[in-house]
């Protein structure tokens, strides 16, 4: 058994279940233009984030599925469940983005930026796409953790929109180790130093793009609201980095990615999911029997 396999078995919870929850949000109602408590800056940030999900999560699925033929039956099962969850996430954010368009926003520039970024990665070998997915999945997982941990991030939001974001966050936490474990399996024959060097470079690259593109996207949506210049960027940056400061508050979790021996499940934060599930009565499927390697 390789060291990567040992790391995976040792840190991914043995009783973890990944449960696709087929829910639909806001289908029968119009979402207010400033759905986040009448706050254009919070609305712009979350709308800019949502604009990335339909194509971005389809990319995640494609990237991981290219490496789905693994000997570890448990990982193979988790990849299938991950795929189902991400497909539903894409569907629901596509519907959310349509409601944003119905409210008067043009997301086409934001979506084009996502397409351009993904096209660059897709032009490289499949392992590059898996590495990008592995890094971005950690980014989304720590954002999800923060959204569920601190109620201020969605305080005052439209009820259906808030439910969408909490549901998505719960499932991002639940499958946060799948892309990373797939990466470990795909690179199990790499020297440890090479694996760390590649993943560190990729995380720095995707972090830079995430911050630049999401900020630019939010500013574009604020421009469509007639809010420009310092009136746009100063309150937006305060929302992101000041209070409630979701980007500031994930920094320590982001740094952990670079530490020796890192694994997404070194922090078991499933308690956040249980609290969410008790509100919405989601059902966890029982764990499947695992065929261990000889």
Automatic annotation (TrEMBL):
The keyword Hydrolase applies. GO terms for molecular function: hydrolase activity. Keywords: Hydrolase. It comes from the Bacteria. This is Metal-dependent hydrolase.
């Amino acid at each position: 058994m390789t060291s990567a396999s040992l790391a995976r078995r040792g840190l991914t919870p043995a009783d973890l279940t990944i449960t696709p929850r087929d829910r639909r949000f806001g289908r029968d109602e119009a979402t207010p233009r400033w759905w986040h408590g009448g706050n254009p800056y919070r609305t712009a940030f979350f709308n800019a984030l949502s604009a990335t999900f339909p194509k971005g999560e389809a990319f995640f699925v494609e990237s991981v599925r290219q490496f789905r033929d693994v000997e570890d039956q448990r990982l193979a099962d988790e990849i299938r469940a991950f795929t189902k969850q991400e497909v539903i996430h894409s569907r629901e954010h596509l519907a959310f983005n349509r409601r944003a368009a119905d409210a008067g926003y043009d997301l086409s520039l934001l979506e084009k930026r996502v397409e351009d970024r993904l096209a660059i990665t897709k032009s490289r070998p499949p392992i590059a796409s898996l590495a990008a997915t592995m890094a971005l999945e950690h980014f989304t997982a720590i954002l999800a953790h923060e959204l569920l941990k601190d109620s201020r991030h969605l305080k005052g939001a439209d009820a259906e929109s808030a439910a969408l974001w909490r549901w998505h966050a719960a499932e991002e936490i639940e499958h946060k180790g799948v892309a990373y474990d797939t990466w470990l399996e795909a690179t199990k024959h790499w020297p440890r130093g090479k694996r760390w060097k590649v993943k560190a470079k990729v995380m720095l690259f995707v972090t830079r793009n995430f911050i630049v593109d999401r900020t630019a996207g939010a500013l574009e949506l604020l421009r469509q609201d007639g809010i420009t210049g310092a009136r746009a960027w100063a309150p937006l940056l305060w929302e992101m980095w000041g209070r409630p400061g979701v980007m500031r508050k994930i920094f320590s979790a982001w740094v952990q990615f670079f530490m020796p021996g890192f694994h997404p499940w070194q922090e078991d934060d499933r308690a956040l999911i249980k609290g969410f599930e008790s509100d919405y009565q989601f059902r966890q499927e029982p764990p499947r029997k695992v065929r261990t390697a000889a």
